[in-house]
Amino acid sequence: MNTLKANLPTSADALAMLIQGNQRYVDAKLAHPHQTPERCAALSDAQLPFAIILGCADSRVPPEIIFDQGLGDLFVIRVAGNLIDDMVLASIEYAAAHLHTPLMMVLGHTKCGAVSATLAGGELEGHLPGMASLIQPAIEQTRGQSGDPVTLAVKAHALAMAAQIASAAPVLSELVDAGELQVVAACYDIDSRKVEILS
Question: pLDDT of 131-158, one tens digit each?
Fold first, then answer.
């Protein structure tokens, strides 16, 4: 394992590290940690990411940058609309069960194209209707609420995906029940660059 730390932080400490990193990003005081040749060498035989991030594929929301983290810090899965399927769950299970990563975050973001397209309705081509059908429940849940409809749906969707992950049997639900994995939802504001923890 070379110079990698043998012990991972607690889920609470991991969440604090993400929040602190995002604040550095907001303040334009980036530390750019863990990006040296020495860090690369330390990671040659193993990885111990302290957080799993399920984020959107949107090019404006790269987790390593908005949380000011480096190589080996985050286990990142990105897909439009931060949606979940069996392959996404398998990826999360690998990090949580085999790498013992203590924190799982579902990261939505404002101005999400996937949510906006679903909200707009109309005919969608290719595989987009399948994506929209998975986002539609969040739109129905927040319909009529005061506020920006896209942001409302983004937050509701992130919370729903986090709940789905936390209850995914047998692996993830058992880790959550045992206190070995914490699952949270969050929303990144593209304008302010701030991450809001939702749960």
Answer: 999 999 999 999 999 999 999 999 999 9
Q: For residue 166, what is the domain's CATH number?
A: 3.40.1050.10
- For residues 51-84, one letter each, b for 16 or more C-beta atoms within 10 angstroms of the residue's C-beta and e for the rest, the string is bbbbbbebeebebbebbbbbbbbbbbbbbbbbbb
- Which residue carries 């729903």 as its tokens? 160
Flag whether 6 is in a domain: no
Q: How many Å apart are CA 134 and CA 106, to the nearest integer?
A: 15
Q: What is the distance between the alpha carbons of residues 133 and 109, in angstroms, rounded to a whole number?
A: 19
Tell me the residue range of the domain where 104 lies.
11-197
**Using omega within 30 degrees of 0 as the cis cutoff, is the peptide bond preceding 9 cis?**
no
Q: Report which residue type is found at 3.
A: T
> For the chain, how big is the Rg over CA atoms in Å?
17
Look up the pTM and report it.
0.94
